[in-house]
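We include the pair:
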Amino acid sequence: MEISLDSPFQKIDFFVSFVLIGVCVLFLSCTPAGAASLTAYISTSPSGDSIKTATDYEQEGMALMAQRDWNGLIALTDDGLALYPDESELMCLKAYALRKIGHFQESVDLLDVAIPLDPRPARFANRGYGLLSLGRTHDALADAYTAIALDSSYATGHVLKATALLEMGNLTGALEEADTAIALGPGIAHYWHIRGNVMDRMGNCTGAIESLERSVTLDNEYEMPWPGLTNASSDLAQVKARCSRPTTSPTPTQAAFPSLLVVATTGIMVWLIRK
């Protein structure tokens, strides 16, 4: 729509308005409070260059994740979701942080919203660990199957499946999935940790110790999937203590002595007869 300035009065009105706007801007910029207000307006204005995109928030979120600043990540994603309420990646980042600080149900609930918007293997694994932390092992296993179906080379999906199967007592299946995860990501400490736990449950002391030692060597301080889980160093110490206990023959109980006496008496009688 074009503005017509054919009338002299219209030209004067436009000029006066322009001057008044200029005076207001100058006044605002000359006072601290006014400058702050003007800066805030410009930064939040739709045409301002300083507005963060959803990608900006996601990149900052990944940096906070690397620093393990979970509360900072939650605050950042809250700000991002205020501007981009349907951004599934921001939801998933927040859900990940919520799980890391023990807010398991909130994490799962948020992923229930995010996953239908953009289903990806990592998001099913993210929710799967949250479900495991809530004791919903079968639901976690279902998410592991879905993650693997979407991408069979996604190692985290396999180790999630191994963890769920271990909880369910399927040790053979758990070992197979742990080995698959390690084949896809041999340098990930968590995968060796899970394998060590599986071998321990199988009663294989040597295999358990070797796997747990490998986990500790790779990263002794890796972040556990959720708070309260023992790390590989603690599990290794427990396995070594348990496997180093000497096996001793049981001491005959008092109830066994009459049987021993009968055997001894019979033996003596046989010896006397033969003599």
About this structure: Residues 1-48, 253-257, 260-264 have pLDDT under 50 and may be disordered.
